[in-house]
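Regression test case RT-17, inverse folding.

Input:
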């Protein structure tokens, strides 16, 4: 059975313990990635830089996170996912600890590049490891429970880091983040101490695994779906705060509360996913996810105040995770012998879609306005839900034709 792939010689571990161990690194790495955004002004003042320059720290973290995926995937398959997660957390710990003492923006920028690449070895490989250790029937529920930690880390980094920076300074927030990653590394080392080391990395084998994955129509479908999903949903995010301010609907604090609604929607999904799988099935979950996300984008296009945006983003978060968690569970099965490589390509597609979505939404806002741009995105994400429902629920024999 494929869910035992890669773990046949390891000591058995309950799904609950596995999720708890992986959740510590998921929370810590996500917090460290999102904590800089609300501290841009504080860091800029302290390092005698401009907010525009310091804002690039987010890209300095996100781009290496995305582009390291095609490398870390086959490395995880070859050397062992547990081993690579440990090394990635150790590098992230070193980068964050060094950031506490960064004397200028240039040094901090370099350290964020290292931290982003290291953080890229945490969540995607954790998803692949859950695919190794958890049976298909329970995998989507287990993945959703793991995502709770990721979502809470995202929410804490986006919403609370700015408040903490006012109390303990941005270096204090980096210190807190360093301690979180240190605890995550300790939990990972102790929790996976019985894991046997993997083999050796071979470039030819890695390329052959990628060739096999990219020749799988189902894998290509999932990569395409998650790419378009990210374009449609995440393009609007950087514009929410300035759009609110422009129409007098709230400032930076209100924008933070509104964006927090997206994470809350993810938590709602995590609480309901087992019920959804029992009562609705994957096809209706996907159609519902596209509908909720599309309707939410339409509401955002109305240009209301931050409270209306918060409600819309809550339902957008619910719709997004209905789609995305299903895609994650499905992608863990497209290449059981190269699971980390498949998940890595999936993550790479997702982050590339996010980056392109921001560009396309900016173009749409300039040329057809807020309502027009969000309406197009709404139609696209609703189409993703319908297409995914059709493509991912067909019997295997029918897909092979």
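Golden output:
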């Amino acid at each position: 059975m494929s869910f035992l792939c890669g773990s046949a010689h390891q000591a058995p571990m309950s799904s609950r313990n596995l999720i708890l161990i992986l959740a510590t690194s998921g929370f810590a790495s996500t917090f460290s990635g999102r904590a800089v955004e609300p501290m841009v002004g504080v860091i800029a003042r302290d390092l005698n830089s401009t907010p525009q320059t310091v804002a690039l720290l987010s890209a300095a973290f996100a781009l290496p996170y995305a582009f390291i995926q095609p490398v870390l995937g086959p490395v995880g398959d070859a050397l062992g996912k547990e081993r690579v997660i440990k090394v990635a957390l150790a590098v992230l710990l070193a980068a964050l600890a060094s950031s506490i003492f960064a004397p200028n923006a240039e040094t901090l920028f370099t350290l964020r590049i290292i931290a982003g690449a290291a953080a890229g070895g945490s969540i995607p490989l954790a998803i692949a490891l859950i695919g190794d250790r958890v049976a298909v029937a329970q995998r989507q529920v287990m993945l959703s429970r793991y995502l709770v930690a990721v979502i809470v880390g995202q929410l804490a980094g986006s919403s609370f880091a700015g408040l903490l920076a006012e109390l303990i300074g941005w270096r204090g927030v980096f210190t807190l983040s360093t301690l979180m990653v240190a605890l995550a590394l300790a939990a990972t080392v102790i929790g996976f101490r019985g894991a046997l080391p993997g083999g050796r990395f071979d470039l030819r084998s890695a390329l052959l695994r990628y060739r096999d994955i990219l020749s799988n129509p189902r894998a290509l479908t999932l990569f395409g779906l998650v790419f378009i999903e990210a374009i449609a949903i995440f393009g609007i995010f950087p514009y929410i705060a300035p759009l609110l301010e422009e129409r007098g609907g709230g400032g930076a604090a209100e924008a933070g509360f509104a964006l927090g609604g997206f994470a809350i929607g993810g938590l709602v999904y995590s609480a309901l996913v087992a019920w959804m799988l029992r009562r609705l099935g994957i096809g209706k979950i996907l159609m519902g996810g596209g509908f909720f996300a599309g309707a939410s984008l339409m509401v955002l296009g109305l240009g209301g105040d931050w409270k209306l945006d918060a409600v819309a983003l809550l339902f957008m978060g619910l719709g997004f995770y209905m789609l995305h968690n299903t895609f994650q569970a499905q992608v863990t099965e497209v290449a059981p012998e190269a699971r980390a490589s498949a998940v890595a390509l999936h993550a790479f597609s997702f982050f590339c879609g996010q980056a392109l979505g921001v560009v396309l939404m900016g173009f749409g806002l300039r040329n057809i306005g807020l309502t027009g741009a969000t309406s197009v995105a709404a139609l696209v994400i609703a189409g993703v839900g319908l297409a995914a429902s059709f493509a991912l629920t067909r019997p295997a024999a029918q897909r092979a034709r």
